[in-house]
Every structure is written in structure tokens, then in C-alpha cells.
Amino acid sequence: MGAKKIIIIGAGIGGTALAARLVKQGQGHDVTVYEKNSFHGGRCSLIHHDGHRFDQGPSLLLMREIFEETFLDLGTTLDEHLTLLKCSPNYKVHFNDGQSIELTSDLTTLLREITRFEGNSEKVTSRVLKFLTETQVHYSKSVTHALKTNYETIWNLFQLKAIPLIWKLHIWDTVYGRVCKYFKTDHMRRAFTFQTMYLGMSPYDAPAPYNLLQYTEIAGGIWYPKGGFTTVVQSLETIAKSHGATFIYNSEVTEVKVNEKKNVTGIIVNGEYMEADIVVCNADLVYAYNNLLPKTKYGKVLGEKGQLTSSSISFYWSLSTEVKGLLTHNIFLTQEYKSSFDQIFKEHTLPSEPSFYINVPSRIDPTAAPPGKDSVAVLVPVGHLTGVNEQQQHIHQLVTLARNHVIMKLLCIIIKSFTQILVWLIY
After folding, report:
1. Rounded distance, CA 373 to CA 363, Å?
2. Are 278 and 4 in contact (CB under 8 A)?
3. pLDDT at residue 153 above 90?
4. Is residue 89 reached through a cis peptide bond, with omega within 30 degrees of 0 on the bond before it?
5. How many C-beta neighbours within 10 Å does residue 159 have?
6. Measured distance CA(345)–CA(379) in Å, rounded
């Protein structure tokens, strides 16, 4: 491929990383990234308030080796641009009966924690090690055959050499089904399946290969980029610009132009037509099909009847003191575990007894809050609210229910004076 004029829509981490790769190839591509906001990052953007910093999107970094490979591909190293802080332990998981477990990448400690629930025997240890072996296969095969393999047509999927993968990846089973083979208590089955919520999926429906998430956490650990996740995007943008990419902000793309032969010819941005040989859209799929591309039946169905994933009700709280009972990552699981997922993914609402996640970035990165204070982000999973998008009163009710539920749990488990130290909040 010779030199091309390439336009990328969106300066999130995907669009920014792609821009850096394209200009680093050295083929003379003219690469321009258009971003509608005045800042980069997309879902990796930040909220700042009186010295407190909150990540609006990701709060933990997994698969560090993939990031390291990316920076190496760009002619540099991750350590030259970022300081990754390792979370130890990975999480503290709180169960509804008052018990808890700390999940860690230290295998000796992890086994000791698990045996408190599963029993202290050679069979238990053997099952845990077999679980890790299986999830390692899920991880390595998925990286090789999904993440790093390009399937140009659907027929590429149907090859004889791919048949053994069906058995190795257990694609006929679910995440919860495979975990039940190795863990016998409800506590551990829940502690090793909630991770599917990263993907917006129920562990009762998510295909078994997604157990790779548990492997990445245990084998590779959980990391946090000092300064927040926007530093990852900033580093990639700096590299991209050093090789000639252009980033233009406050520039909203309103249309992707397609000719009668269904070839993309350019975009409309800020009311002007910009020609391009290649256009890469880093916007949300449903939005792109229904707002940027020519109208199609597929786009309409995707927007109206598509099975959209879950969302979350998110709170960002500034606390006047440090809450020692909270680690960097904290999971609070409901007693009604399965029904909570059914309410999210089948009833499309807030569970009556929701599980939730609390991130305290200031616990691992002191720059996230003023000295002696904490920044706290809370995520309460909720279903895609079909049919109520115009009913703001209903949404406000759900927000109130979620906030009250989280605060009551914290008052019971963590700190009885929580409401007295909450000085600022936004959702």
C-alpha cells in the first residue's frame, strides 16, 4: 500500500493507537485524527475537582504485555512513557453474609485465601491449579487466534485446523459453567465469575473462553497508570505526533461520505468536506451506523432492536479523609447473584439488590487526591433502559436507589460515619 490520506474519527485510545501505528510504518501516510471534544481520551477521560481526580472509564489495566508490545512496535518502551503501579492485592471481594476474600496474583496467598472457603486439601489445590491451566489455554489461544489474527471473511473461521480450538476453548460452555467444575462453594464461584461485567455480559451467558480474564489478573496482575488512564492516550498521541500525525480537536464529524459504488470518499467535519482514501471510525458502532453512515436496514435494526449491553450508574465522590477499609479495587456482591444478572440483561433495569464496584485510585496513586483525602468512584451495573430514555424521573429514581444502596452497605461494612466525610459528589 502506497502513501494514503487517512482520516480517523475519535481520539480515544483505539483511534490514537492506530494513528501512531500508521505513521510509524514509514510509508508516508497523511494521518489526521478529528475529535469532537476539546480533550482526548474518549472513555479514558478524567474528572477533576478541588485536587481530586477521577477516571471516567477504565480503572484497572490488564494484559500489560499487550501494552508493552504496542510501545515496542512504535519504536519505544512502555517504561519510557508510563509508570504502571501494581495493585496488591488485586481486589477485596465482599460477600453479602459479611465474609470477604482478597484476590491476589501471589499464588501462595491466593491458595490460602481460597482454602478458607473451599477447604484445605490436596484436591482443592489441584482443582485451583487445573482451573488456572485451563484459563491459561483460553488466554493464549484467544490472543493468538482472535486478537492477533485477521479474519477477512466469515469463511476464514471455518477451517479444519480450527476444529481442535472448539474443544480447547470450551466454547459450548459458559464462564459460570466452567468455574463450577473447579470451585464447589457459591462464594468462590461468584468471586471467579463477576469479571464478565468488564465485558458487559452475564457469567451465565458469557462463553467460557472469557475465563481468560481471571487468568490475566492472577498471572499478570492488575495495574494502574500513575496520573490516570488518560496518560496512556497522551503517551500514544505524543508518539503519533512525533511521527507526523495531526490531531484536530473541537471538530465533530457529522457524516462519512460514501459514493454510488459504496466506497468511502471522505467526511463532513465542521460543515466542510474532507477527502480521504481511508476513513477509520472509532465511534460507537450503533452511533456510527445511524448517524454517520448512509441509512441502512441493518443500522436501523441495530439501533432499535439490537441487544445492547449493560451500563452503569456511576458516582464520583470526594472524601474529606482516607477510608482505610477500602482498597484500590473493591467488589460488593449481592446474595441474589443470578437474579441480579437476570434483572440487568433480561429485564433491563437496576437489580433490586445490586452488586457494585468501588475504585479508590488515591489508595495506589497519591496524585489522585489531596493529602489525607480520598477520591472514590462507584459503579453500579444497570441494564440498558429500553423504553424509559425519555422518562428522566424514572432514571433519577434508579440513581437514588443505587446511591442509597451503596451508602447503606458502606455504613454497615466499612465506616459508620461515611455520610459525614462525603464532601462532593457527581453522577
Report:
1. 10
2. yes
3. no
4. yes
5. 10
6. 16
Enter the pTM of the model: 0.92
Give the DSSP H or E segment for 40. none
SS3 376: strand
Please tell me the distance from the alpha carbon of residue 247 to that of residue 11, in angstroms, as a whole number.
Answer: 8
Residues 6+ apart with CB under 8 A from 275: 5, 265, 266
Report the distance separating Cα 206 and Cα 170, nearest Å.
12
Q: How far apart are CA 242 and CA 245, in angstroms?
A: 7
257 φ/ψ angles, rounded to the nearest 5 degrees: -85, 135
Side-chain-side CA neighbours of 180 within 13 Å: the count stands at: 9
For 2-46, write each residue's pLDDT tens digit: 799 999 999 999 999 999 999 998 889 999 999 999 999 888 889
**CA–CA separation, 93 vs 357, rounded Å?**
9
C-alpha cell at 51: 485536587
Can you tell me the mean pLDDT for 246-261? 95
What pLDDT is stored for residue 2 in this prediction?
79
Q: Residues 6 or more apart from 407 whose CB is under 8 A from it?
A: 418, 419
Q: Which residues contact 71 (CB under 8 A, 6 or more apart)?
A: 77, 78, 80, 81, 235, 239
| Helical (H) or strand (E) element with 237 | helix 230-242
State the average pLDDT over residues 84-97.
96
DSSP 74: T
- Closest C-alpha among 290, 404, 414 to residue 363: 414
- Amino acid at the residue 369: A
CA atoms of 191 and 197, how far apart (whole Å):
12
Grid coordinates of 120: 484445605
Contact 338, 196 (CB under 8 A): no
Beta partners for 422? 319
Question: Per-residue confidence at 115, pLDDT binned at 50, 70, 90?
Answer: very high
Measured between alpha carbons, how far is residue 267 from residues 8, 165, 252, 299, 367 in Å?
10, 41, 10, 19, 40
Q: Report how far residue 43's alpha carbon sits from residue 13's, in angstroms, rounded to the nearest whole number.
A: 8
Cell of 333: 456482591
- Bridge partners for 390 per DSSP: none
Q: For residues 190 and 101, is the Cβ–Cβ distance under 8 A?
A: no
Distance of CA 107 to the CA centre of its chain: 25
Using CA atoms, how far residue 1 sits from 148, 266, 375, in Å, is 20, 18, 48
Mean pLDDT of all residues in the chain?
A: 92
220, exposed or middle or buried, with CB in 10 Å at 0-12, 13-18, 19+?
middle
